[in-house]
Design a protein that fits this description.
With 230 residues, the protein is α/β, with parallel strands linked by helices. It has one domain: TIM Barrel (Alpha-Beta Barrel), CATH 3.20.20. Helix content is 41%, strand content 17%. An 8-stranded parallel barrel has the order 1-2-3-4-5-6-7-8, surrounded by 6 helices. α1 packs across α2, α3 runs parallel beside α4 and α7 runs parallel beside α9. The chain is globular and about 45 Å long. Bound molecules: cytidine-5'-monophosphate. The site of cytidine-5'-monophosphate has 17 residues, from β8 and α8.
């Protein structure tokens, strides 16, 4: 059953909190990414948690195994529920991040970014494979590296689930019919993502930049509901 994640891609703490207050009763998860985390830091994560949100911290770690392990443990200590790193960081980096949660009472779900949904074929430096093939290649390794799930486009969920049924799939690049793709390249509608088997749908601009974020959210949820969601 797919769950909706609101990407809080806004430049102010107050704006983020007001969006969450408006939507928390219908959207269970919120995502804090680079811009908002740089501006508002861990204090905001605690405030969001106090509002009852599940927190997805999307900093997409990619560094040496030790550095990423320490960062993952620090994020877990703040109470983050889901955390991302790049699968391209490789086996040692991913395993070190997973092992960094050892001994903690609670740990975040650990998701590996495969091929960013903003990549079209030919845009990934040094990689000739199509982004969808590369995403599947990385997803097949992710379970053995201790990851709970992968970030991939809704176009890749079917093949990923077929090869790795236990891997959770989180999909950005969600665009309701007629919505501007912006910088995203591998996009699907909310209904397509759910139908293909996505576990989490991450939506930013189509909600955050809507005249009424609540109306936009309700339309997305209604479309998801037709295919079954939580
Ligand atoms: O505004 P939009 O709906 O495109 O936002 C998508 C969100 O998902 C952004 O916050 C972006 O950072 C994130 N994301 C992505 N592609 C990935 C991983 C995360 O677009 N592979």
């Amino acid at each position: 059953m797919a769950q909706l994640v609101l990407a809080l891609d806004v430049p102010e703490r107050d704006k983020a909190l007001s969006l969450v207050r408006d939507l928390a009763d219908i959207v269970p998860w919120c995502k804090v990414g680079l811009e908002l985390f740089i501006l508002a830091g861990p204090a905001l994560l605690r405030e969001l948690k106090a509002l009852g949100c599940k927190i997805f911290l999307d900093l997409k770690f990619y560094d040496t195994p030790h550095t990423v392990g320490q960062a993952a443990r620090a994020a877990a200590a703040v109470g983050v529920d889901l955390l991302t790193l790049h699968c391209q960081g490789g086996e040692r980096m991913c395993k070190t991040a997973r092992e960094a949660f050892a001994g903690m009472a609670a740990r975040p779900l650990l998701f590996g970014v495969t091929a960013l949904t903003s990549f079209a074929h030919g845009e990934m430096p040094g990689i000739d494979a199509a982004p969808s093939d590369f995403a599947l290649f990385l997803a097949k390794r992710a379970i053995g590296w201790g990851l709970d799930g992968v970030v991939c486009s809704g176009l890749e969920v079917g093949p990923v689930k077929e090869s790795c049924p236990d891997l959770l799939c989180l999909c950005p690049g969600i665009r309701p019919a007629g919505a501007a793709a912006g910088d995203q390249r591998r996009v699907v509608t909310p209904g397509e993502a759910v139908r293909n088997g996505a576990d989490f749908l991450v939506v930013g601009r189509p909600i955050v930049q809507a005249a009424s974020p609540r109306t936009a959210t309700r339309l997305i949820l209604r479309e998801m509901e037709r295919y079954g969601f939580q």
